[in-house]
Amino acid sequence: MANHRGGKGSFLGPKAAAIALSILAAVCLLVWGGLAMDGLYSRNKTAASSLIPAPSQAEEDSYLTDRVGGAEPGMSYIKVVINGQSRFVFGMHFTDVKSVLQQGNITLQSGDTVTPSLSTAVNENTVITIDNPNSQVTTQDSPIAYNVITKDDPSMEVGTEKVQTAGKNGVMQTTKLVQRTGSKVAFSNTIVSFVKTAPTNEVILIGTKSISESPQSSSQSSSPSSQGQQSSSPSSIGTTQAVGTPQKIAEQMLEEHGWGSEQFTCLVELWQKESGWDVTAENPSGAYGIPQALPGSKMGPGWQTSATVQISWGLEYIATRYGTPCGAWAHEVADNWY
C-alpha cells in the first residue's frame, strides 16, 4: 500500500517495508481465512483453524510503528478481532467503539456480540472483539488484467517487433465474513482485499532502425559501447493502452494534469502493484481503494465506490509529493512504497 505521509490535503500515514508487509499480510490473512498452507496462501478454501501461529507482539509492534510513523496529528489505530480474525483500523480522533467500527467500515449484523460495548471509550490498547456463530470466513482469488506496453528499440529494423516479456494476469485475494440462510448468502462483509500477485505486463519491442542505415553505422552499432547504449533504450517506460474503466478515467485525468503517455504507463504499473486498480481494495491495515488511502474516508464523498474520487485524490497526492507518476513509480521500485 502507499506510504502516504503527511502532505498537501493531510494525506496518509507511511507504508511498511515490503518484506515486513508481505510476511505480516500472509500471517494475518492465513489467520483470518483459516487457510491451509500452499506457498504463502491457499486458494478458495475455508477452514476452521489456521496452520500459521498468530503474529507475535514484536511483529505487531514493528508493523504498527511503520504504519503510524510520520502520520498527521490525530491518526491512531485500534485492533479489531472478528470471529477470531485480526485486523487493524486506522483513523482520526477515535472516541468510542462505535467510532472505530464506523471508520473501519465494519457493519454489525444481527447476532453480533461486540466487546466492549459500542459506547465504551477507546485508546490504542483497546482490543475490540466481534463474534457471531452464524458467520464464517471465506477467501477467493480473482484475476488482475495485465497491460501491453510497447517500447521503441533502435537495434531492430523499422517494421519489426518482438515480445520481450509475455503478459500474465495478477491475482487479487479477497477475504470476507459471510452469513448464510440455508444455501443463500444473507450478508457478506469484506475483511481484506489485496494484491496477492501483481500482473506481469506484456512488453513488446518495436523496431526504429532505418533499413537504409549505412554499413559503418551498423558496424558501430554492434560495438560493445554501442550495444550498451542500445540496451538502455528499450528499458524506457514505454506506452500502454488503458485496460478497464478506472484506467480510462485516469488516462483522461492525466491529460488534464499535462502528463503524457509515459506518465500513464508509470501510473498503471504503480497502481497495479498497490491495488490492482480495484476501487474496493482494502489492505490489512485498512488502506483503501485504487491509491490505497489510509483511512479511505480521506478521499472525500464517494470514497468507497467511486473510481473518479479515488483517482483524483491519488493524483493530487502524487503531484504534491513526487511531481509525476513516474517519480512515484521510481520510488516504489527503489523502496517498495510510495
Task: Explain what you see.
The chain is of the alpha+beta class and 338 residues long. The protein has a domain of 118 residues: Ubiquitin-like (UB roll), CATH 3.10.20. Helices cover 31% and strands 25% of the residues. It contains nine helices and eleven strands. It has a four-stranded mixed beta sheet. A hairpin with a 2-residue loop joins strand 1 and strand 2. Helix 6 crosses helix 7, helix 6 packs across helix 8 and helix 7 crosses helix 9. It is elongated and about 80 Å long. The chain starts with 17 loop residues before the first helix and ends with a helix. The relative contact order is 0.15. The N terminus is likely disordered.
Percent in helix: 25-40%
Radius of gyration: 23 Å
Separation of the first and last Cα atoms: 8 Å
Indicate the CATH topology of the domain at 18-135: Ubiquitin-like (UB roll)
**Secondary structural class:** alpha+beta
The rough form would be described as: elongated
The CATH class assignment of the domain at 18-135 is Alpha Beta
Tally of DSSP β-strands:
11
Element order: H for helix, E for strand: HHEEHEEEEEEEEHHEHHHH
Strand count, sense and barrel status of the largest sheet are: 4 strands, mixed
Give start-end ranges of low-pLDDT stretches.
3-71, 217-234
Strand order of the largest sheet: 2-1-4-3
CATH architecture of the domain at 18-135: Roll
Mean pLDDT across every amino acid position = 76
By DSSP (H or I, 4+ residues per run), the number of helices equals 9
Strand percent estimate:
25-35%
